[in-house]
Structure formats: C-alpha cells, structure tokens
Records
---
Amino acid sequence: MPRARVVKVDPLRPDEGVIEEAAGVLRSGGLVAFPTETVYGLGADAFNTEAVYRVFRVKRRPLDNPLIVHVSSLEMLHRVATGVPDWVTRALSVAWPGPLTVVLRRSPSLPAVVSGGLDTVAVRCPAHPVALRLIEALGRPVAAPSANIAGRPSPTRAEHVVEDLGGEVDMILDAGETFFGIESTVVDVLSPRPRVLRPGPLGPEELEKVFGTRVDVPPYARGVESFAERPPSPGLKYRHYAPGRRLVLVERGSCDDSSYLEFLVRVLESRSQETPALLASNETSEEVERRLGEAVVYLKMGSRENPFEIARNLFGSLRSLDRCDRVSIAFSEAIEERGIGLAVMNRLRKASSERVVCA
Ligand code: AMP
Ligand code: MG
C-alpha cells in the first residue's frame, strides 16, 4: 500500500503552502490527518459523502458511531446545525476555539452518514493553528474522528497515525505532540441542562462557568456504566483506547492513599512471576519501585500534582505497553476524578479489560 505523505509543519506558524496543499487534498475527496489541541484527527470534507464513508472504512469504525464536525468559526456552525439556542451560542463564543464539542440538531443538508444516521450532529472549533488554518483554507466544515484504528488509543503524535493508518490516508501533517493528549469534552446541549456525554480537557467545573448553569455528569461519563444498545451517545457502546495487553485498573474504592499503595504493591507482588507493568504517576511508580524494584516494568505518566501531564502521556503509555515484549499483564493506578482527571479515569475504565477494587 502506498505510504501517506508526511509533512512537517510548525504548530504555531504553519506554512501556507503546506496548508493549501492539504486543503487541496480534502477538496478533491482525499483524507488528511492533522493535529488539534486534543489528539490527531482524520479529516474529510464533511459534505463529501464518499470521502466520509472512506473515513469509516480506513478507521474500521462502525457506521453507527458518528464523527465530530470541525468548523473554523461560529458562522460555519450554522452550515451543519440548525436551531442553535441563544444560550449555546453565548457559551460557544466564550469557549471556542477550544476542546469543547456540542451535540446539536443536524442540518438536513449535511450528509446523514457523518452523524451515523442520527438527526443530531457533534460540532467543535479546534484551538490549534494547523487545524484552524486547514478548515479556513478549505472554506468548509471538516468531519474528523481521531486518526487511529477504531478501538486503539487515540494518536497524540504523527508517528501514532503512521503506525495505525500510514498506508491508507493521503497526507499527514506532523506538528509534533498534541497539547492535551486526550479527546474533547462532548456535551449534549439539546436537553434543558447541558449533559456531559464524554469528559475531556474541560472538566465539569469549567463547563459550569462556560454555560453559567449546573451541568449533568451521568455515571456513563465516568465510564462506570456500559450499554449494549441505544446509549445516549453511540460511542458509549464500544470498547476504546485498548492496548494489546491485559490491562487491570486498580480502583481506589474507599481506601486512603497509604492503604491504596499497600494494595497496589500486594497485587503486583502476586503477579511478579509474570513481570507485570505498572502505569502510574511518577510518585506512585517511585514508591513501588523502592519496594519491588525490577520485578515490575514502570510506565511513568507524570506527576500526581499535574493531571494535565498524566492526560497528555496516557495514550502514548498505552501504546508503549504494546512494545513491552516481556509484559503480558499490566496494572494501572486510579487518579483523582477531578477536572481533567475525570477524563483520564473514563479512558482508563474503557481501556482496561478488568478492574479490581482496593479493599
Ligand atoms: P471521536 O471522533 O473518535 O473523538 O469520537 C466522537 C465521539 O463523539 C463518539 O464517542 C460519539 O459517540 C460522540 N458523538 C458524535 N456525534 C454524536 C451525536 N450526534 N450524538 C451523540 N454523541 C455523538
Ligand atoms: Mg476516537
């Protein structure tokens, strides 16, 4: 299969020639992977039905799992959504560009395949100069899910896109590592009160400021509830972000910090014959390393004091797990479910094949 053209581009001052070339690829029905402030997206002209079908095909994404439509302005929003309430427009004029996706009524002119056949549409305006310039240069909305094979961890570097889809996209814009490293917050704004469908970089506290009202955070937003059919957001049906190894999430339950650490050490010790891996904060990794040394492979995700750092390294760590040949089972620490930590725990629950609770 021909390899995609990978073109390096400055994240803050993207070369106009490169942007024009990428817009030309989209205009002629091609697929371009591009960086956003959350993760890399796999873009197609949202109004080109064939190109949108191709996005589903190369990602191996089920056709009922809708894509997010990316716009470069509030004006462009009205080409893909109808009946946008005033309170939503006001909130978006504060929060956009940024990692906030809203679910609205789909405009009948937007191909239904973009929304997996639903009469709603998820829209966002990304805060990344490369993404924004690309959409502006095309002059049309871009449908873009994360640029990974369905079910795999989302790509936070162009290398991850090459790994998953290098042979099947037309062009990859490489602007280095993405900023948040975790997908946008998705909020349903069709009910009277905003409801989080997928937690992301904007936590509930920030959302309440943006919307000026209470925001619902249902159990499925934490990843503790799963659905067989008809979930409020189609993506909730599917397992996600999964590494190719057994991953056990060690939940905190009602344990305090010191009994949680004891529990984690005991769990890892019981599997020491198998050289388990541990995905954890720097602090926890160092504590465990003092106790168990080289019996464990450590994948450090960042300081416990800085959940943004942990979020940014999460998907890369899940991918590097697949490259640890001697590891057959991995354990992950649970972090505090506040702010972006809510999104990290949602992704860990969806990535893990099993969960044990500290007792
Ligand atoms: P991704 O594009 O891979 O970041 O995933 C997009 C997420 O947004 C999926 O989990 C979808 O379920 C969700 N989503 C997209 N469109 C809609 C919609 N119209 N209604 C509810 N959820 C949506
Ligand atoms: Mg995705």
Note: The pocket of adenosine monophosphate (ligand 1) is lined by residues 65-68, 103, 115, 118, 120-122, 145-146, 183, 186, 197-198, 233-235 (CB under 6 Å).
---
Amino acid sequence: MARSKNPVKNIVILISGGGSNMQAIVQAARDQHWFEKYGAQVACVVSNRADAQGLASSAALGIAHHVVDHTSFETRAAFEIALAERLDAYQPALVVLAGFMRILTADFVARYAGRLVNIHPSLLPAFTGLNTHQRAIDAGCTVAGATVHMVTAELDLGLILARAEVPILPGDTKDALAARVLAQEHLIYAQAIAALLAQQLKMQHDATEMNPN
Ligand code: GAR
C-alpha cells in the first residue's frame, strides 16, 4: 500500500453528552492499530456543550478537545460556520457524530459529504428522531437496535453502513434497553469506521496505481 505518500487521515468526533461511543472508537483505534493499518488517528473531540461528560473522558484519553457552544450563536448557520472552522483546522478524513444532538443544515452536510457518519439508536428506517427506545417498546416491537449511516440532509436516512439488533425483553424499560443497545453501538461503530478507512485507503491505492506520479 502507498500510505506513506498520503497525509494522516484525521478523524474528528462530535459529541454532546456522555461520549461512550467516542471512547469506544478511540480505544478501537488504539487496540486495532488504525494508524499503522490505515494511517488514521482520532485527532480531536468537539462538543457543542461545555458540560458534556465526554470532554473529561477525551482529556483522560489524551485527545485534543474543544467546545463550540451552540448557545453562543444567534443562528444555526453562525454556529455551523464556527464548528466548520474548528473541524477544518484538522482537515478531517472523517467527521464522526457520536451522540451529537444538533440537527445539521444541508449546507453543513454538503461540506462534509462522503465524510460524515452518524450512529442512531434504532433500526433505521424505523424510529428516526428522538426517544427511540420508548417508542419501540410502546409500538410492541420485539427487536430494537442501532444503525451506523452516512449523513445526508434528510434526518437519519443516509446510506446504512452497519446495524445491530437487540431483543426487547418482556418488561423492558427504555433505560435497560438503551444500555444493552449502547453496548452494541460501541462494537458496530468502530467496525463501520474501520471499514470506511479501509475503503478510503483502497481508493487512494487504486488512484496511485493509475497515476503513479
Ligand atoms: C447513543 O445512544 C447514540 O446512538 C445516540 O445518543 C447516545 C450517545 O451516547 N445518538 C442519537 O440519539 C443521535 N440522534 P454516548 O454519548 O455515550 O456515545
């Protein structure tokens, strides 16, 4: 592979809260040697909330972290300009939404087209939006889960990269179900990102073969 010719692929992770998916991705990157395999590293974590618990975890993991507080901006567009400035400083190969709870405009999504991924706590296309686990229980579903997908301007509806199914047990509460789904999220999100990195590397390799200079 011709990785040495290519710049490091920076992964930036956007969070709003607990950051457990972020931690699982950072851990997978380290355990699975993403830098050596794909030339990729988790370069930074950005939160739209100053009180996100995940910020302390990124500090403990030794990952650069920033806050772009959406409440400091008068409009969604102004927030997104500041967010994009922060992200673009890292020239990200992937922008990973990991419990990032802001809706993004079509302009923002277009800027990172093909590089923007999300995890959603339902078996998409079922239960887009919020409160997914309670809605699945209330609907009498026997299976819930999570979906990793590319982000498009339409909420929670881009190309599906991975899904995990989790049975809904008799008497399940939304919190108990959410905890079991979250454990699966940690596995499939890291797997899906590794697959994307492998695909990007192959595309670079193929391009180098076609145009060696
Ligand atoms: C996860 O369950 C994720 O799927 C969900 O927020 C949680 C974040 O947990 N995301 C969404 O609901 C996005 N629409 P974490 O902060 O511990 O990774």
Note: The radius of gyration is 18 Å.
---
Amino acid sequence: MDTRIFGTTEQDIMQAAEILKSGGLVAFPTETVYGLGANALDPEAVGKVYAAKGRPSDNPMIAHISSKDDMGLLTDGITADVEKLMEVFWPGPLTMVVPAKPVVPKVTTGGLDTVAVRMPSDPVAAAIISASGVPIAAPSANLSGRPSPTTGRHVIDDLDGRIDAIVIGSDCQVGIESTVIDMTSDQPMILRPGIITAQQLSQALGKEVTFDPALLQKPDTSAGSGLLEAGSDFRPKSPGMKYKHYAPKAEMIIFQGDRQNVAMAIAEEKMKRAQWEQKVEVIMYDEEHPEEAAKEFFAKLRACDKSGVDVILAAALKEDGIGFAVMNRMFKSAGYNIVNV
Ligand code: AMP
Ligand code: MG
C-alpha cells in the first residue's frame, strides 16, 4: 500500500479527514503520542487498525472526540463526576471509561460494554477529528509491542506502507499515553497512569481516586511470549496493560534505590559491559522533572534501537505522580528487569 504523507495545512487536514470518513487509516499527532486513526463507529475500519498494528483484538481502542458535546453520542453515562473531569481536564491527556451506547461497535471496545473516550488538545488532532465528523479510534501509531511514537519519523519507521496516510506535525509534548480512569462506578479508578495524576484527579473530584491493584504489582514475565503468564494473578482491568510493551531491542536493566548508590552501580555495570565490548546507553533523568523523562523516554528507546545499543542501564525515578507513570512504562520496557541497590 502507498502511504500518503501529509503536513498540517488546512488542505492536508481536509484530505486526511476524507480518508477517515471513507473508512481508511490515518496516523496523526496528538499531545500524548501519535495516534493511528479510524472511524470508531465503523467496525471494518477499526478492524484494519488491529491488522496494521498487529494488535491483539481484545485490546480496546480509545474513541477520540473534538467537542464535549460529542460525549453523548457514545455514552449515556455522563455522571456529575464525569462532567467535572470533562470540565477540568478536557481537552487534554485524560481518557475516561464509561458505559458504551449500542452504536459503539464491539470491535472498538474489544468486546466490552464500556468505551474509553478522550478529547485531545493538540490542534491538529482536534481539526482532523472535527473535519471527519465522527469519533476516531486512535491507539498509538506503532507496531504492537514497540515503543509508542512521539515524532512523525517514528510513525513512518513503523507504519509506512501499512496505512493510508500519515500526518506529520510537531513532536509530542507529553510523550506518554493518556491517563485512563474508569468512571463506570462511584469509585473512580486509574487503569493506566499518565501525566494527569491521581492527586490532580482526586482534587478535582473532591474524593479519593484508587489505582487498579494490578498497577501496583510487578508481574513475573519469565514466559517471554509477550503475554504475561497465564497462571499469574496479574489481571489488569484495562486489557492493554497485560501485554508486554515498549520493548527496545537492547537488554535493559533498571537500577532502583538511593540515587548515589544507583549512579555508582550504573558506573560499575557500564565499565563491566564496556570490557565485554558491548555498546552501553545510560538513562538517568532528573528526579525533580519527571515530565521531561515522560517527553523523552520513548524517543530514547527508539534511538537506542537505531544506533545498535546492546544494553540500556536506567536509573529509576520516584514512583509517585508523573514519576509513577514514567516508571510504569520503564518497568515494562525492561521486562521488569530490576536491580535494587
Ligand atoms: P492505546 O490505544 O494504545 O493508547 O491503549 C488504550 C488503553 O486503554 C489500553 O490499555 C486499553 O486496554 C484501555 N482501554 C480502552 N478501552 C477500555 C475499556 N472500555 N475498559 C478498560 N480499558 C480500556
Ligand atoms: Mg499503545
């Protein structure tokens, strides 16, 4: 398939929207990561997304809208809490899981009777969704299992020849996927951590927000199949969280503990690996600015792949707030290969 490459002129956006309207696949930038879009209400179009990404079909899609009014197209479940979060965080990197209306195809929800909805703030994303006139299912625009794409180049590397078009816009400002929160009961629960933190959500709602217990576990991934071990008790509510994600080609080790000890342990390991003539990359982000880590992390993994790095030695961030969201990705990338120092 010939993949058309668009910029972000008005004409480009209209053409991209036309492709979406007629059931095609278009990748485009959002503030979180690049998304691979399809008409969320067209089962055939959504089916093509799973095929292009090589994505397991029980992993549901997020439906993206460009106006708060469109929430009512997808759900009857706009509670006072949902409304509050829409008011405070939309448009932005927050996805809400709500009961789905029958109009939402099962292929979009991975067979669930709930649907995940987000209203992105990126102006190019908003313009494309708005011009298409339908909600757009848009999982990250990468091959399944690879790091999420945060630049147009990343999307070309993964999906050129597999989809109808790619809209190249700015690099993503957030750099990790949206926070996903389950709003189907009175007790809001975070299913995937992101840049919008539990503390912010809880403050906006005036009530406690919990985490899916699976997020607090570090599962055994020794089966090595990409799918976590069937026998394990790791059962996240968000189907996508159970798959091995974001894996770089290199071996990756995370060093966790006091920063000084971590720095020393990494230096030692680096020396040892260099003696083995391995190409080593060290990732050590400023603990005080986890948002910078979020923005750069996936791009870093892809750069390591491209330059043939053998081993990545990474310093853990504090697991709270945005740091918790970054570490969620980092642990998965390393296949939970953690050294405590
Ligand atoms: P992605 O599209 O790659 O950003 O991934 C979407 C994430 O949202 C995955 O982790 C999905 O499992 C999760 N998700 C989407 N829809 C639902 C839903 N109805 N219930 C729970 N999690 C969902
Ligand atoms: Mg993804």
Note: The first helix runs from residue 10 to 21.
